[in-house]
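Here we describe the complex-level prediction in full. Unlike the single-chain runs in Section 2.1, the three entities below were treated as one system.
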Amino acid sequence: MDNQKNKPVDSTWTNHDRSLFLHAVANGPDDIAGRWEEMANAIPGKTPEEVKAYYEAVEHDLLEIEAGRVELPNYNDDIGDEFVVTVKKEDEAVGNLDSEMGNGTKRVEKERKKATPWTEEEHRRFLQGLKVYGKGDWRSISRIMVVTRTATQVASHAQKYFLRQASLKEDNNKDENKKKKKRRRCSIHDITTADVPVVVDTQPSSSTPPTSSLNGSQGRGVPTPTPTPSSPHEGQFNGIGSQGRG
DNA sequence: TCTTCAATGACGGGCCCGAC
DNA sequence: GTCGGGCCCGTCATTGAAGA
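The structure predicted for the assembly as a whole is:
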């Protein structure tokens, strides 16, 4: 199977297949052994071998791009087809402000872009990227791990994440009474790197999937850490991704 | 000079809690 | 039970600094 590593991405995969593939990657099982079978089940007409080969090809392509060995064909729009389908829909809903700004045509009325909350899935990818690429390499994290977010967004998210961690740390040093007094909601930032195992090997030879543990058996729903037992809304941020804001 | 990152503040919106 | 004010959170925009 290793000889398929340098194979270009299989062109027989339709956009629909690719969407299913990405979804399967995001929600795939934790254990590597049964992973490909699970993913193949989610993509009609594809065998586990095909899924694995496709995954490795995609991974290889990403690494090539990352290494600067591949010229990017105007990826602003192209990536959207394959990786940010859902996000694009939201962008359209708010008038695709990004593309307008990107063309250099200044907007007459500067309208604040509608905030799209980070999903748990995105946050977990972010954490994995943080572990793999380290603090500061937001570009790589945004390109490889959280393709639905720009480097700026990743950096901003990281800032709030670290602030949150620092705040939690501070609270832990206070006594129980003070802790209870402070109202703190559950937040997506309560998911820390300790909850996200590193599974990405940046070496091209590795076939370790970058998102193999995302969600994993946990899947959707209740996040593991609930650091504020005093909060009446345990597991509240379960809805952060889905509930949206309005 | 250009690109990238970090820091900061503004803003929108949800949630909590007390008053009624 | 409901309503409203204040608090808190998350995202976006802007600006300056640093490095290539």
